[in-house]
Write a structure and sequence with these properties.
The chain has 254 residues and is an alpha/beta fold. Helices cover 37% and strands 24% of the residues. Among the domains are: 103 residues; 38 residues, no CATH class.
Length: 254
């Protein structure tokens, strides 16, 4: 039997520990006997990420932007214990977070339906796909340990030098603080991805935030989704018989 030839390279992101063994088995037994594999290889094992000061992670993401498709194996995001175990230069950030930030990626987690394998809930014929915005937030967060009493503020300095301040917390003793951000460009990209995915897969789209508590951060997501739906997707959803539904995240989880 002639092997299938690949015209466009696949970006191959190798990973850590058992995933390296499993990925090699998948290639050796399931792919290479049938396909002339054409891959661009990147070693995202923790040792090589450390050796390259994590440049290999950035390079793999840029290659994915170039070729449009990649396979990534599981990787270790180091904690303090891993620092000593691997003799790391620093506590490198999540490779997934780095890659998603470069790709402005949206994560869709969809069930894989395999003929002949019965689902646990046999009457469940419409699987749920979970979408998550994969830019900013804790993956790009800035953190501080507060040593003692003092004031923490958010400060925005505009291009003209004017400042806007918001009090985060007045500490009367030690504590911790974290700052997170997002950008409208990425939120809009996320919204378009969700609406297009729903139309492609013929699935209703539910969107949820905690806008009752986060009246600026989460509420911005809600407003942008509604604006884009009304302007670009309402007619297509109606024609396809699909629903866009917003609800509080508490209700969605329940």
């Amino acid at each position: 039997m002639d092997k299938i030839k690949m015209t466009t390279p696949l970006v191959e992101m190798d990973g850590d520990e058992m995933t390296r063994i499993l990925w090699k088995m998948i290639k050796d037994e399931l792919l290479e006997p049938f396909i002339e594999l054409n891959t661009e290889y990147y070693d995202l094992g923790l040792e090589y990420r450390n050796e390259t000061d994590d440049q290999v992670t950035i390079d793999s993401a840029e290659a994915t932007k170039k070729y449009g498709v990649a396979v990534k194996c599981a990787t270790i995001t180091p904690n303090a214990a891993r620092m000593d175990e691997y003799n790391l230069k620093e506590m490198w950030k999540s490779p997934n977070g780095t890659i998603r930030a470069i790709l402005d990626g949206t994560v869709f987690r969809a069930p894989i339906i395999v003929k002949g394998i019965e689902p646990n809930v046999k009457t469940w014929t419409k699987p749920i796909t979970l979408a998550r915005h994969a830019y900013g937030d804790v993956y790009k967060g800035t953190e501080m340990k507060i040593p003692g009493a003092g004031k923490v503020e958010l400060v925005y300095t505009a291009a003209d030098g004017t400042e806007t301040r918001e009090l985060v917390h007045e500490f009367d003793g030690p504590g911790i603080v974290q700052g997170v951000h997002n950008v409208e460009k990425s939120i809009r990209s996320f919204a378009h991805s969700c609406f297009k995915y729903a139309l492609d897969t013929k699935q209703d789209l539910w969107f949820a935030t905690k806008d009752t508590i986060s009246k600026k951060y989460d509420h911005t997501f809600k407003d942008i989704f509604q604006e884009i739906y009304d302007a670009d997707y309402a007619e297509a959803f109606e024609a396809a018989g699909l629903e866009y539904f917003y609800t509080l995240i508490d209700d969605a989880v329940a």
